[in-house]
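User: Structure tokens for this complex, please. No commentary.
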Amino acid sequence: MSEEDDIILAELDDEELVQQMFDDLYDGLKEEIEEAVTILLDRGWAPYDILTKALVGGMTIVGADFRDGILFVPEVLLAANAMKGGMAILKPLLAETGAPRVGKMVIGTVKGDIHDIGKNLVSMMMEGAGFEVVDLGINNPVENYLNALETEGPDILGMSALLTTTMPYMKVVIDTMVEQGIRDDYIVLVGGAPLNEEFSRAIGADAYCRDAAVAVETAKDWVGRKHNSQKSA
Amino acid sequence: MPRPTDSQLTEDGLPLARTGGQVLLIACGALAREILDLKRLNGWTHLDLTCLPAKLHLYPEKITRAVRDTVARHRDAYDTIFVVYADCGTGGLLQAACAEMGVDMVEGPHCYSFFEGNQEFERHSESEITTFYLTDFLVRQFDAFIVKPMGLDRHPGLRDMYFGNYEKLVYQAQTDDPELTKKARACAERLGLSFERRFTGYGDLAGTLARL
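Assistant:
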């Protein structure tokens, strides 16, 4: 039996437990994360603190190591799955305790595209960062986006595509928003493996986000700017 | 020249063996066997071939740079250079680079499309968005391109995160090989998808190379 197998989470003090959660997220250990979340709740931690200090803190390390080529997609997915386990416990509590809300995002994979791994990671990290996320799922025609913009009133529209053949559909959505005179009412963020900054500019998006961590930072930045401009208007 | 192994084509590509051709094909290693077959069958001695490692497809953002470097290395030695890649997940960057370098490339989004014929693939693409495609090469290299990079050997539970939205695996057969069909069917089972074999032959690739 390895030394790690001997760790009893409940016997760790708060600081040690959070560090251990970082390690367990890194290793994609869902059950351990769920147990640790429950322990911290029992110790009186606010759900929002567990989310930001332990789960998001741990996923930030995962995200950085992914960007640096130390971790790869399978490991990130396992870590995300572990975080999802913790989030499932926290989510209803966050709603009850009125955690601060940074903004709201509608997100979906574009028409013709069923790839949702990146989108799901972005959704989860955005929720972790305090955004309310309305996830439209996969294969969304322009009508789905427009309906959601109208009914949900988000700050941000996020579109994702994995295929070279489907990424041009993002322009269809943005052009339709322009035609309807609503383009400037929303921050439009795009992402997906074949995309790049140049494409993002060419289709009239506000920013290209190369990964989930960048998406969160970009979203915070743009929402902050939007709120500032509204205040000064 | 000895036939390269699939592992060599995946990891290292195919080094240039100069045979006096006036046209250089810079191709993806995943197409090496098919191009060598077409050369042999058609007597295309004017075409020389070098291939980049097929595993570049695992990092499409590296394809454009690798093609640029290879064109630069050989352009003085050949009258014509032709790039045997489709867009291949480069998001238009490869096409832009080829245009800038003054070299042509294969039309289409990826090899699944040009093997089936770009027009035909385009025609049914909307009705097949939940289809996962494999070619002869990818069936032979299923572990190297799918199982290992996706971590399915170490974490089989990830399968549904990757393939949960897919319904069907279409094996686009370039050749008639019962063993390969059997393996393709096993790949579909492993991914939890239904199976269809679709004989494509070399599709648009043959016509494209014939015009060079």
